[in-house]
């Protein structure tokens, strides 16, 4: 008897939009934040997938900022990979006015969370958050068609290593990074040798180049 292989579970289109220097470094320079978020609107993502390193870098600002306007009903869901259980400002993130809600992504090894915590969570993976399972759940349970990754190189590198990245959008700033040991946008991901399809190659204001590529499969 022959068996028909079951189709691969659906997962969303995953795009990483990153501001970089020509060396591919994501920190140690002043990105044009306004332009970055203007272009981030290109994808109208259903889910913003953020790394814990990125959000931890913003927690001090969130703590001292005045209360946000509250959830944006039409905004994307903010899903945060937080295997270490290090994020604490969930209420402030939900109220920031950018997202409709927040979702904490944990693994079986994530330390216990306070019982009083008011945040939805999704637990996948035994030691680390299982990024493939997360994306399949976001498609199946949240109806996500597009996920935009907002992170430094670690999360993007992990997605690349698992062959889960469909598009790379680099906003290349005309300066060299001050930090010679700065993190590259692809983190420590091993090479995949995949071909890319050029979508956009534009020069924008102040000599910033926007390079957008789709990963060929
Ligand atoms: N230039 C830009 O456009 C841009 C954009 C965003 C952020 N940044 C900067 O980048 C810096 C933060 O970047 P970062 O690279 O340190 O951190 P990050 O990518 O924001 O966070 C690392 C994330 O990757 C996850 N991760 C790594 N390997 C994994 C694996 N194998 N499986 C599952 N999850 C995995 C970690 O999960 P755990 O929590 O479980 O460890 C964590 O959530 C900040 O300084 C920020 O300002 C720059």
Automatic annotation (TrEMBL):
GO aspect biological process, one term: riboflavin biosynthetic process
> For the Bacterial bifunctional deaminase-reductase C-terminal domain, which residue ranges apply?
45-188
Which molecular function GO terms apply here? Answer: 5-amino-6-(5-phosphoribosylamino)uracil reductase activity
Q: Which SUPFAM superfamilies match?
A: Dihydrofolate reductase-like
Out of the domains of life, which is the source?
Answer: Bacteria
Q: Which InterPro entries match?
A: DHFR-like_dom_sf, RibDG_C
The name on file for this protein is Pyrimidine reductase
């Amino acid at each position: 008897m022959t068996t028909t292989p079951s189709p691969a579970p659906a997962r969303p289109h995953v795009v990483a939009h990153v501001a970089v220097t020509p060396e591919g470094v994501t920190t140690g320079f002043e990105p044009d934040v306004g332009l970055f978020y203007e272009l981030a609107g290109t994808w109208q993502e259903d889910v913003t997938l953020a790394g814990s390193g990125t959000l931890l870098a913003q927690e001090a600002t969130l703590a001292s900022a005045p209360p946000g306007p509250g959830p944006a009903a039409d905004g994307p869901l903010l899903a945060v990979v937080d295997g270490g259980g290090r994020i604490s400002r969930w209420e402030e993130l939900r109220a920031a006015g950018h997202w409709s809600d927040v979702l904490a992504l944990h693994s079986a090894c994530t330390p216990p969370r306070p019982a009083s915590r008011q945040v939805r969570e999704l637990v996948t993976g035994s030691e680390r958050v299982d990024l493939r399972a997360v994306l399949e759940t976001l498609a199946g349970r949240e109806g996500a068609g597009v996920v935009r990754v907002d992170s430094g190189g670690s999360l993007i590198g992990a997605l690349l290593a698992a062959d889960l990245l469909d598009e790379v959008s680099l906003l290349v700033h005309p300066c060299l990074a001050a930090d010679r040991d700065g993190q590259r946008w692809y983190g420590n991901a091993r090479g995949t040798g995949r071909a890319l399809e050029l979508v956009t190659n534009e020069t924008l204001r102040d000599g910033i180049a926007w390079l957008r590529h789709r990963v060929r499969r």
